[in-house]
Amino acid sequence: MRDAYGKHWLLLRGLSRESAHWGDFPELLRQAFPQSKISTLDLPGSGNRNSESCPMTIADITDAVRRQAIRQNLMQQPLTVLALSMGGMIAWEWMLKHPEDICAGALINVSLASLSPFYKRMHWRNYPELFKLLTLQDPLQRELTIVRRVTNLNEKHHALAERWEQIHRARPISRLNSLRQLAAAASYRPDARKPQSPILLLNSRGDRLVDPDCSAAIQRRWQLQLETHLWGGHDLTSDDGPWVVNTLQAWLRKLQTEAAAS
Prior knowledge:
Layout (H helix, E strand, L loop, with lengths): L7 E5 L12 H8 L4 E5 L16 H14 L7 E6 L1 H12 L4 E7 L9 H4 L5 H9 L3 H12 L6 H14 L4 H12 L12 E6 L8 H10 L2 E5 L6 H26 L1
Helix pairs in contact: 1-10, 2-3, 6-7
């Protein structure tokens, strides 16, 4: 397992998002780890799986994602998972249930209902916009509303919203599947165990969707490594992909040094 750190990256996105929403980040990761394999998977109901009905629990979504990984022959060596938001919940559940699958996990702006109250897991200021998203008919306005809430580079908002609108038009996620994913994320309460694999937590001080204390609560509960970006938003890889990559490189060097010394 120790020799597998960073050799095969699996990227998991969050609520109502798909693999294409990573943008140019997979290429940044590939440049940083040129000998590694980089894979992405979509959640049920999203992306290439948008015709499916999404399960309503993180446990069932995790099982569905794992089955897809097996079908696509992604399990030939232990995975290093990089997961954002709801994707981090799936990675956490996966590491708990199948520790042999994942050698390490980096979780960005993740939250757990067992450790953080609902008003921190989604800032109360977002509730009106959440209901607005359910009624907006214009895909561009919908995506612009999302972009303004999850990223902090204001000068890039319109260009990013236009790219995300194209993704939505190509592979739209239904309102029902969005609600099913939201229900799964809101109710996720893992048991009290900590996954066996090493975990890196990343959070963003400028996150206006999820309180950065949600990641800090996980860090305090299990004494995990936590790195904080000073200004980034919830979608940290969109705001500052190079910072994420540099942090991952430093983390893996640390893991490899610790493994060699043990």
